[in-house]
Amino acid sequence: MAKKQKIPEPPKGAPLWMTTYGDMMTLLLCFFVLLLSFSSIAQEEFNKAIGSLQGYLGILVSHNVAVVDKKFINTEMVRNNNPSNMKKEAEQDKEKPESYIISLAEEVEKTAQKKGIGGSVEVIQFLNSIRVRIPVSIAFKQGKMTLSEESKEVLKKIARLTKNLPYSIDVEGHTDNVPIYSEKYNSNWDLSSARAIQVVEYLVDLGVSRDKLRAVGCSEYKPIAGNDTEEGKEKNRRVELIITAYDPEQLKALK
Prior knowledge:
This protein has eight helices and five strands. With 255 residues, it is α+β, with helices and mostly antiparallel strands. The protein has two domains: 17-60; 61-254, CATH 3.30.1330.60. A five-stranded mixed β-sheet has the order 1-2-5-3-4, with helices on both faces. The termini are far apart. The model is unreliable at 54-84 and 250-255 (pLDDT under 50).
């Protein structure tokens, strides 16, 4: 008679696979906790980076926008800035130069309206910068590379309010996509650069420090409208001034 085999008793405690599974869950928990802590730090850095990028790129538009012809400004961010006292207030609050941006946008807007070009000039406000967008038809005299009197008044206002404060000004020239054939300009790169340089030289004549200025020729490659219509091409032919407040770290370096 065959002997009955004795069935081994199962090991006491949790199965072996539970130990591996528990270790994996613990590691995953630690991993996600670390991700959460890193995301909090990254968010602060991200907010700082967005403030700088918005003013320069002009594509990450925040909800705080001031447009000349649409008259829209987020009132929650508007401080009680007296335009006649803006410089004094900015000097008292140098750690937050972006507080001056709102007043600067309003002053540029008022000047454009006063000169009758308020419906054409756009003043787009970001966290610590503004973008002043002037169509070529407004910026220059017809068929010439000479600044119009209306655009000069806007530039004078910008120069007066920024030349003694910690701001940088990037001037971008833009064209449509129609190739240019001219003895003076070999391409749209040349034409857009010439437009930017013309504005920069005028700001220098107004007393703006050269080290605060930069002329950028963008040719046809940063359109704001389609080039398939005359209206779109006219919008793309423009000059833009990006006025950016230095961040606190840069301000400390200036002291």
